[in-house]
Predict the structure of Phosphate-induced protein 1.
Amino acid sequence: MAFFFSIRLISLNLLLLLCFIPSICYGATFDPFTDKTKITYHDGPILTGIVNLHLIWYGKPEEIQREVIMDFLETLNTEGDKKVQPHLSRWWNVVESYQLAMKGKPTIGVESPKIKVKVEKEDTIDYAYGKVLTTQYDIPRLIKDVNHGDPNLLPLIITAKDVSMHGLCAGKCADHGIFENNKGFIVIGDPEIECPGACGWPFHEVDAGPKGPIFKPPNKNMAADAMVVALASALVNTITNPQNTGFYGGIEFDPIESATACKGIFGPGATPGNPGKVFTDRKTGENFSAHGNNGRKFLLPAIWNPATSTCWTITSRYFST
Ligand SMILES: *[C@@H]1O[C@H](CO)[C@@H](O)[C@H](O)[C@H]1NC(C)=O
């Protein structure tokens, strides 16, 4: 998370600076396999109802990435074919269950109100702010110019592969934060050139750390499929902790949020460097964990399940560990 125009800003920016030395940055080195952080509720709001996104493509996005990301967003709230399971909306249901968790433990079998994510506005802008962006200066400027501070839109900035996003690649592959008036935003980077070995995993070998199986991307594009994972994680974190007063573990200045707490886990049996058990397409050999609409498939990250206080994956009920 990055905070601006507030007291918290100072300590957080300091923390961001320290993050370039990974060993002293808690968030960047957070390990769900050894760290027993529990996510708890801090009495503030979460996002509910309709979440209107303002999709801002920065630079030249590849067509495949645009299609895959749009299909992901458009599939979240649809039921899909009952016979083609598990569907992406099952995964989204766990995010929706946080609404019940605000009032106590979610009860299994009780349906939560829907949280609808809508792409309300879409813009593509060129490299007007250069090819190296910072969350401190460029992102606020860009959002101000493109979004005009519309309070009803949540800006989602997706950068092209030739753009460096300051703060991404080093331990995180997407970010979200707030500006003045508690307005939120999300930024996603393209790992293809910048950091395939950090943000392309599990579709690309990692630069450092334990090596495990590498997945075949379900949409045939390492960057697009990795960006879905990053976007899925950022959405979970933004919905459940939009103002850093919602659901998180650890300390306020460096919160461990609901997707971050389960980082590196995609299926049952996950261990450091091994994403766990997921499905394999019999024809193509592609690995995936959920179906989308139009025959699309996605790999989805684990989410902290407030009902069980453990990391939940959409494939866990299909495999024994
Ligand atoms: C991923 O797909 C490959 C085939 O391309 C398969 O051998 C492997 O077992 C799959 N991995 C998982 C975790 O299902």
Residues 54 and 155 are 5 Å apart (CA to CA). The chain has one domain: 40-318.
